[in-house]
Amino acid sequence: MRPSKLSLIAPFYNEGSGVDYFFEKISPVLHDIQNIEWEIVCVDDGSSDDTLERLIAYSQKDTSVKVIEFSRNFGKEAAMTAGLDVSTGEAVIIIDADLQDPPELIQQMIQEWRNGAEVVLGRRIDRSSDSAAKRLTASWFYKAHNKLAKPKIPENVGDFRLMSREVVDALKELPERQRFMKGLYAWVGFKTVTLDYVRANRNVGETKFSGFALWNFALEGFTSFSTTPIRVWTYIGFAIAVISLVYGAFIFLRTLMYGNHIPGYASIFFAVTFLGSIQIISIGMLGEYVGRIYMETKHRPIYIIRKKYN
Ligand code: UDP
Ligand code: MG
Fold first, then answer.
1. Angle between helical axes of 212-225 and 181-188 (0-180°, round to 10)
2. ω into 102 cis (within 30 of 0)
3. CA 269, CA 292: separation in Å to the nearest integer?
4. Which residue among 96, 198, 204, 302 is best mutated to probe the pocket of ligand 1, counting the most ligand atoms within 8 A of its Cβ?
5. What's the CA gap between 237 and 235, in Å, rounded?
6. CA-proximal residue: ligand 1, atom 23 (nearest)
């Protein structure tokens, strides 16, 4: 039987201290899999440390190690996109360079793929390696996103996954520049199998996603896959109009019956500030979408490659 080819894609951003660990852990796992050949696509996402030099050194020793050097930091979503674009395997696995997701699962993923799965997801059953705040906000995000957007994205599933060539080709058809990969993966569909695992702590280096970066990421997710946040203002507007009409009628009748007593500074002040803020929020929401349309219409490339090695 002809061996099948696996492409392993790993985005690296300032992971210099973890490069040796990465190859030390990955190599035996790949060698243990029966009847397979592979390439390891390492995308250097504009690291400012020695990540690139270290990756190039590995690529010189081993032709299965391909390195893509970005011209600057384009973000993890762009790095994964580049990896998918150059990958040639019949199966593709994306894994974080810090190996927080267990490479041992790769063997099982391949098994599921050989049994007919087109997508094999890794699901974290225990997120104790993330901070309490990150866990809580992540769970809010999934709940809100899945209420608003279609298709739903599975909870606690990261980018660690196997995809067959058909799935990767489908993903490459999606032209958007602003890439919320979790949503795009869900959007293309395909036969999916989920494997549970426990996520380890980061071995070296530190997380690149915290606070505001995660907030922007969540906003990207909502606005890329749902128009509810922008359409909801129509209904809020109607609701406020109805309330105002009822209140207006009440004032009118009260004036007819009891005459015009003390003028209502308080209610006017409230109405002006409340409506004012509602309008500004809705314009802001509009702006989120217009901004995204603006970015998309420029048709800029998702990433720029300075050089490829191997
Ligand atoms: N990463 C990247 N570009 C970035 C930020 C992160 O390629 O701008 C990579 C990073 O090197 C790692 C993966 O994305 O391989 C996940 O990052 P991290 O471990 O910081 O995220 P966390 O595991 O904390 O969610
Ligand atoms: Mg990590």
1. 30
2. no
3. 35
4. 96
5. 5
6. 207
Say how many C-beta atoms besides its own lie within 10 A of residue 134's C-beta. Answer: 16
Ligand 1: distance of its center to the CA of 13 in Å? Answer: 6
Q: How far is the CA of 12 from the centre of ligand 1 (A)?
A: 7
For residue 92, which phi and psi values (nearest 5 degrees)? -125, 135
> DSSP assignment of 63-115, as one string?
TTEEEEEESS---HHHHHHHHHHH---SEEEE--TT--S-TTHHHHHHHHHHT
Residue 225 in tokens: 């896959």
The bound ligand whose nearest atom lies closest to the alpha carbon of 43 is 1
Compute, in degrees rounded to 10, the torsion defined by CA atoms 257, 262, 265, 267.
-30
182 touches ligand 1 (CB under 6 Å): no
Tens digit of pLDDT at every position of the chain (310 positions): 778 999 999 999 999 899 999 999 999 999 998 889 999 999 999 999 999 999 999 999 999 999 999 999 999 999 999 999 999 999 999 999 988 889 999 999 999 999 999 999 988 887 777 788 888 888 888 888 888 887 888 888 889 999 999 999 999 998 888 888 888 888 888 988 988 888 877 777 778 777 788 888 888 888 887 777 777 887 887 788 788 888 888 888 888 888 877 777 767 877 787 788 778 888 888 888 888 888 888 888 999 999 999 8
Q: Record the pTM.
A: 0.76
CA nearest 295: which of 192, 142, 179? 179
Alpha helices in the chain (DSSP H): 19-32, 51-61, 76-86, 105-114, 132-148, 165-172, 181-188, 212-225, 228-258, 265-297
Residue 44, ligand 1, Cβ within 6 A: no
What contacts 270, CB < 8 A, 6 or more positions away?
A: none
- CB 96 near ligand 1, within 6 Å: yes
